[in-house]
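Subject: sequence -> structure tokens, single chain

Hey, anyone have a minute? Need the predicted structure for the following. Not urgent.
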Amino acid sequence: MTASGRRRQGLAGGVRPWSWAVTVLMACVFVTGGGMATASRPTADPAVGASTSAGGAPRPQPTGSASPTPKRAARTDAGARTVTAAGAVRPAASAVAASLAAAVANPGISHPVPVSRIAAQVGALFNGGLNGAHHCTASVVDSPGGDLIVTAAHCLGSTSDVFVPGYHDGTAPYGVWRLRRVIVDAQWSASSDQDHDVAFAVVAPENGRDLQSVVGGYALGIGQGTSRPVTMTGYPQATQTPITCTNGISAYGSSQLRIYCTGFTGGTSGGPWVIDGAGSGTVIGVIGGYQQGGDTPDVSYSVAFGPNVQSLYEQAAAAGG
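Reply:
Had a minute. Here:
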């Protein structure tokens, strides 16, 4: 994990067979005394220190380090990438279902996403272009203008970043999309408040087409709770394809969510947390929040999408289109 932290990426769209998937996954979920669903844990708990969150929940403290290390990957200029033509066809729903089945078979354990099953809605963020390392993950969210992506606020400092949906092996199968505007909460701008580590960005059209018309988009899920398993996808900086993992989730204080999924290292921040839904699924969180997504590869966090995120989305939608 780099000094600048971890970032993660999204998952494929398509209708998912939850009738059996939920049964398998929830077998790995137990209920605490307060009745909250808790994620299956593939690894030992992180050490718990004395500090608590605003909501009163104990917060894991990093071990062997004076300060937490976020999950955003460092931006470098090494490793040039090659761009391919835009306009490729999105992966079929059957391919998405097959990828989900692989994840459900091993809840809490990440696995690489085969190139044929990479979700078009999810992509990597680069600073300025493909002539460097990808540093975060983002995903397309449904909007009236068809031009919004969602990620962690700590992933976007300006409009110099570009979004590459479906990125793999140095190629941009759906094109390279420039950002026109970044929208973050005022409390994030003022103090990098971890409870507001969410950002939307308006993406400029390419060749007369908006982003969503090319790759599709996830529905935005507000107030979805913790009763359903989540599939999380992200792009580790050290790899050229994303990883994905499915598991139950739990509340972390009053404003954040937590999931146990292995191997989400630098570069995966901003990756979407997706639950089943009509069409291509619903994004209910992004890797970020507490310690900018967590200070270990196997435990990730997200701001719980509530009224503040809904308001931020509405600002972004009004700025786009």
